[in-house]
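Project outcomes to date are best conveyed with an example. Our students and postdoctoral researchers have been running inverse folding experiments weekly, and each run begins with a structure described purely in C-alpha cells. The record below, which covers 609 residues, was selected by the lab manager from last quarter's runs and is presented without edits.
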C-alpha cells in the first residue's frame, strides 16, 4: 500500500515541500498523484522493486558493464534496437543508456535534449508501446535501461512554451520570462556561459513572447522555473511515469542548473538539493527499484552534496567526470599525479557514493581540472589546458591524437575537446603497423584504467569496435556548428566482419575490451565491500590502484610515460598472478613496466603488514 511506503517519509517530504513552496494545496495534489502512480505500477515492476530493495547495492556488483548510445545511430529505431539485444548480451552489457527518445523538434534539437513532450516517444523512434516492450525485453535479459530526464528545460516548442507564447500567464510562469533586459542584465553579471561560442549568453529574446526568456543552453531550450510549484509537480510526475514504463535509471540532465537566483552562478544552489531530495523520496515510495543518476559536470568539491547523506540520500550514482578528464590529461602529459590526487578525493567520499566511470560519451571533454592541485604540482592551469586541447586536436608536436575543439572561448582561452576514443588514442593518425599497435595499446590502456576504478564502467557505443571520428558532420546544416557530432556517428556494423575474421585493429580492440571486462566481471575483488585506494609508487608516471578484500589484493598499475618506468611497491611484495597473461610472478620491491603499458595483478597471499 502506498500509505505504508510513504509513512516513513511523509514528514520530511511535507516539511521540505512547504519550506520550498509554502503551498498546502499543491502538496496534497502531489501526494494524490504519487499514490496514483504507485497503484498503476505493474506487478512485474513491483516484484523488481521488492528484489532490489532487498539488495540495494544491486547496481554496484563487479559484473556490471554499461554502454551509452543513440538509438538511431545504432539500430534505426526502438524495434531495431530490440533486435540487437543479442549483440549487447554478447558484449556483456548489463546497463544501457539511450540518448533522448522523447518527442523533440525536427532539425535542431541538441541531440534530443530539447524535449517537446515528456510523456511521448518521438515518432521517428517508435511508440510508447514499443518503448515499454523494449523495457520488458531488456529486463528479461538482465539489462537495465537508463533514459534521460531532461529536467532543466523544455524545447521552445513544448506545449507549455507555445501557450506561454500565446500569452497564457499560467505558462509564462513556467519559465523565466522578463519584459525587458533589465533583470537578464543583472543575471548575466554572475552567470557563466555553457556554450560561449555556439550559443552565447543566457537569455534569448523571443518575438512571440515579446520578452526575454532564460536559455542557459541553446536559445531553443527554455529553462524551467522550479520556483513555481506547478513546474515541480509536472516534472516529478513525468519522471515517475518513465519509471512506470519500465525505465530503471533516470539520468538527471543538467541537474545543477535547475534553481536560479540573481547574483549567483545559478549552479549547485542549496535548493537544487531540496528538489533532488524530494525526488528521491518520491522514487523510494513509488518505484524503489529505480535509480537516480546525476549529470553533474562540476568541480569535485561540488559533487559530494549530490549524494546527500547516508540517512537522506539524493542521487544513487554520479558521472565521474573529473576522473574521466584526468584520465585523458594523464595520458597526454604522461604524468599520473593529478589523476592520483583526484582519485584519492573521490575514493574518500565513502561507500554510498558510487560513480559511473567512462572515457567518452556523447558530450565533449571539458578540461576542468583541479587548479589548486595543478599549482601545487607546479603546473600552470591555463597553459596545461591549452596544451591538452591542442594535443588532442593533433596540433602539438608529436601528438598522435585527432580531435576537434569545442566552444573555443577567445577571451578566456578555454576550449573543450571532441573525438572518439580510438581517434584520440591515435588510431586515426596511424598509417604504419607499428603506430597502429601503439594506438591499440593506448586504447586498451585507457579502457583498463577506466575499468580499474571503483564504479560502474560504461562504454560509448562504437568504442568496442574502435570507431573513428566522423568528419562528415560538417556537411549537415543542423550539425555543422556543434563539433560533438564528430563522435556521434552511425554504428559501423560492417566492422563485425573484421571481428569474425579475427584480424586487424577492430578485432584487437574488441577482443581486448572483452577480455578486460571478462576478467573484471569474474574478479571477486571488484566487490563493493573491497577497500579501494591508490598507492604511492614513488614514480610520478605510474598510477597504482589497489582493491583489497579479506587479505586478497588486486593491483592495477599504469605507466603513463612512453618510456619504461619502475614502480616501487613496498608491502605488496609476494606472489602475484598477471591476470592478462595468466602468468605467475614474484613481485619483489617493485616492477618494471614498458612505455604506456599496464598490468592487472592479483595476490592471494596476505602481504607484509
Ligand atoms: C547535458 C547533455 C548535453 C546537452 C545539455 C543540455 O549536458 O549531456 O548533451 O547539450 O545537457 O540539455
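After processing, the design step wrote out the following sequence:
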Amino acid at each position: 500500500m502506498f500509505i505504508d511506503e510513504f509513512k516513513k517519509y511523509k514528514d520530511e517530504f511535507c516539511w521540505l515541500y512547504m519550506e520550498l513552496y509554502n503551498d498546502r494545496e499543491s502538496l496534497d495534489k502531489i501526494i494524490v498523484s504519487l499514490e496514483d502512480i504507485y497503484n498503476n505500477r505493474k506487478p512485474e515492476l513491483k516484484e523488481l522493486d521488492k528484489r532490489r530493495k532487498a539488495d540495494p547495492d544491486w547496481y554496484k556488483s563487479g559484473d556490471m558493464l554499461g554502454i551509452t548510445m543513440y538509438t538511431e545511430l545504432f539500430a534505426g529505431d526502438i524495434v531495431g534496437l530490440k533486435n540487437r539485444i543479442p549483440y549487447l548480451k554478447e558484449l556483456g552489457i548489463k546497463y544501457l543508456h539511450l540518448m533522448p527518445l522523447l518527442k523533440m523538434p525536427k532539425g535542431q534539437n541538441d541531440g534530443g535534449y530539447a524535449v517537446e513532450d515528456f510523456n511521448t516517444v518521438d515518432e521517428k523512434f517508435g511508440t510508447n508501446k514499443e518503448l515499454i516492450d523494449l523495457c520488458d525485453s531488456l529486463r528479461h535479459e538482465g539489462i537495465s535501461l537508463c533514459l534521460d530526464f531532461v529536467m532543466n528545460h523544455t524545447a521552445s516548442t513544448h506545449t507549455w512554451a507555445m501557450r506561454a507564447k500565446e500569452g497564457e500567464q499560467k505558462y509564462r510562469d513556467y519559465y523565466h520570462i522578463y519584459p525587458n533586459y533589465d533583470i537578464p542584465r543583472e543575471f548575466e553579471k554572475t552567470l557563466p556561459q555553457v556554450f560561449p561560442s555556439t550559443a552565447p549568453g543566457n537569455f534569448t529574446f523571443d518575438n512571440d513572447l515579446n520578452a526575454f526568456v532564460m536559455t542557459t543552453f541553446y536559445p531553443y531550450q527554455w529553462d524551467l522555473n522550479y520556483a513555481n510549484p506547478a513546474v515541480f509537480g509536472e516534472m516529478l510526475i513525468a519522471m515517475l511515469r518513465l519509471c512506470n514504463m519500465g525505465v530503471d535509471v533516470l539520468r538527471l540532465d543538467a541537474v545543477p542548473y535547475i534553481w536560479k537566483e540573481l547574483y549567483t552562478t545559478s549552479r549547485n544552489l542549496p535548493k537544487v538539493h531540496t528538489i533532488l531530495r524530494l525526488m528521491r523520496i518520491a522514487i523510494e515510495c513509488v518505484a524503489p527499484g529505480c535509480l537516480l543518476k546525476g549529470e553533474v559536470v562540476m568541480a569535485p568539491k561540488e559533487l559530494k552534496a549530490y549524494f546527500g547523506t547516508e540517512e537522506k540520500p539524493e542521487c544513487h550514482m554520479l558521472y565521474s567526470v573529473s576522473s574521466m578528464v584526468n584520465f585523458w590529461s594523464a595520458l597526454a602529459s604522461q604524468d599520473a599525479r593529478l589523476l592520483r590526487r583526484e582519485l584519492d578525493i573521490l575514493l574518500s567520499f565513502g561507500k554510498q557514493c558510487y560513480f559511473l566511470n567512462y572515457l567518452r560519451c556523447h558530450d565533449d571533454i571539458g578540461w576542468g581540472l583541479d587548479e589548486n592541485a595543478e599549482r601545487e604540482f607546479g603546473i600552470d592551469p591555463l597553459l596545461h589546458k591549452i596544451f591538452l586541447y591542442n594535443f588532442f586536436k593533433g596540433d602539438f608536436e608529436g601528438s598522435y591524437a585527432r580531435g576537434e575543439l569545442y566552444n573555443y572561448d577567445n577571451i578566456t582561452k578555454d576550449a573543450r575537446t571532441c573525438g572518439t576514443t580510438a581517434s584520440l588514442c591515435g588510431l586515426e593518425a596511424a598509417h604504419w603497423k607499428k603506430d597502429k599497435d601503439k594506438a591499440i595499446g593506448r586504447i586498451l590502456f585507457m579502457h583498463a584504467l577506466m575499468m580499474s576504478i571503483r564504479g560502474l564502467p560504461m562504454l560509448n557505443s562504437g568504442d568496442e569496435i574502435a570507431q573513428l571520428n566522423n568528419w562528415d558532420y560538417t556537411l549537415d546544416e543542423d550539425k555543422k556548428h556543434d563539433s560533438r557530432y564528430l563522435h556521434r556517428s552511425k554504428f559501423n556494423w560492417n566492422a563485425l566482419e573484421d571481428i569474425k575474421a579475427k584480424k586487424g585493429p577492430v578485432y584487437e580492440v574488441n577482443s581486448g575490451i572483452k577480455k578486460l571486462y571478462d576478467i573484471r566481471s569474474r574478479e571477486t575483488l571488484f566487490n563493493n565491500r573491497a577497500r579501494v585506494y591508490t598507492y604511492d609508487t614513488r614514480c610520478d608516471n605510474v598510477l597504482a590502484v589497489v582493491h583489497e578484500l579479506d587479505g586478497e589484493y588486486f593491483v592495477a598499475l599504469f605507466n603513463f610515460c612512453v618510456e619504461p618506468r619502475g614502480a616501487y611497491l613496498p608491502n605488496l611484495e609476494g606472489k602475484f598472478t598477471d591476470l592478462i597473461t595468466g602468468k605467475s610472478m614474484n613481485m619483489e620491491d617493485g616492477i618494471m613496466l614498458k612505455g604506456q603499458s599496464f598490468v592487472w595483478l592479483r595476490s592471494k597471499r596476505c602481504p607484509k603488514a
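The longest strand covers residues 542-549. Residues 570 and 589 are 6 Å apart (CA to CA). The training component of this project remains on track.
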